[in-house]
Structure formats: C-alpha cells, structure tokens
Amino acid sequence: MAPDPDESEAKVKQKELTQRIREREEVVKRQQERLEQLNAQLEQLEGPQRHTIEQLRIEIDRVDKLLNGARADQVSATLKVAEATELLERKTEDKRSSSDQLYTMLLDSEEGKSAKLAELEARFDRLLTSLVAPAPDAALEARLGTD
Coiled-coil annotation: which residues (predicted)? Predict the structure, then answer.
C-alpha cells in the first residue's frame, strides 16, 4: 500500500507548523529574557531613587510635625500677645484715670489751701489792725483808702 498523499502532506504541514511554533517560542523566550533584563536594570536604577524618595517622604513627615507644633505655638503666642495687649491697655487706662483723680485732688487741695491762706491773711491783717490802733486820722484815711 502506498502512502496516502493527503496523509504525507498533513505530516509535512504538521512538521512545518511545529517548527514555526518552536521558532516563535524561541523568539518569545528571547524577548521575555530581554524584558527581564530590562526590568532588572530598571529596578537597579530605581533602587537608589526609591531610597531617596522614601527619605524625602520621611523628612517631609518630620518637618510637617514640626510645622504643626510651631503653628500651635504661634496660635498660643498670638493669644498671649492679645491678652497682654488688652491687659496693658486696661492698666494704662487705670493709670490715666488715677492720674486724673490725683491731679484733681491736688488742684482742689491747692485751691483750698490758697483760700484758707487768704482767709488767714485777712484775719491776721484785721488782728494786726485791731492791735495797733492807728491815729484817728490814719484810721479815717485807711477807711477812705479801702473803699
């Protein structure tokens, strides 16, 4: 019996197909190896960069915590300044008010002393006048001169 031409042709096509599949598998395998090499190189390049990025993130977090603390300190200090300013203004007003009262009291006291002194001088003059009796003409002149 002679080999069937269709069967021989099918075997040839199967061999060709198998060969092409092997060739394609080799190409895919080489491409996969190349991709793995490139990925390894990329990771080597990214390694230091990843470390640097991580260090920067850590530093940013550290500084952020410091900033939050500084902001809280600033708010506290601002409130203290406002309270101190308000206290200073109140005490300044108290001082001004006390100074005004003192000035008024001193002025009233001085006016009272001046009035009392004038009254005492007048009494003293009258007393002196009554003790030293002037001559009748002098008394008349004194009376005429004061009117």
Answer: 14-73
Nearest to 28 by CA among 16, 20, 15, 40: 20
* Residue 87, SS3 per DSSP: helix
Cα distance between residue 51 and residue 59, in whole Å: 12
Task: Take residue 30 and report the two structure tokens written for it.
Answer: 């080489």
Task: Identify the burial level of 50 via C-beta atoms within 10 angstroms of its C-beta, where 0-12 means exposed, 13-18 middle and 19 or more buried.
Answer: exposed
pLDDT in tens, 8-35: 888 898 999 999 999 999 999 999 999 9
Angstrom CA distances, 72 to 63, 67, 92, 123, 136, stand at 14, 9, 30, 75, 96
Q: Which residue bears the tokens 């915590």?
A: 65
Look up the pTM and report it.
0.43
The size of the chain, in residues, is 147
* Phi and psi at residue 38, to the nearest 5°: -65, -40
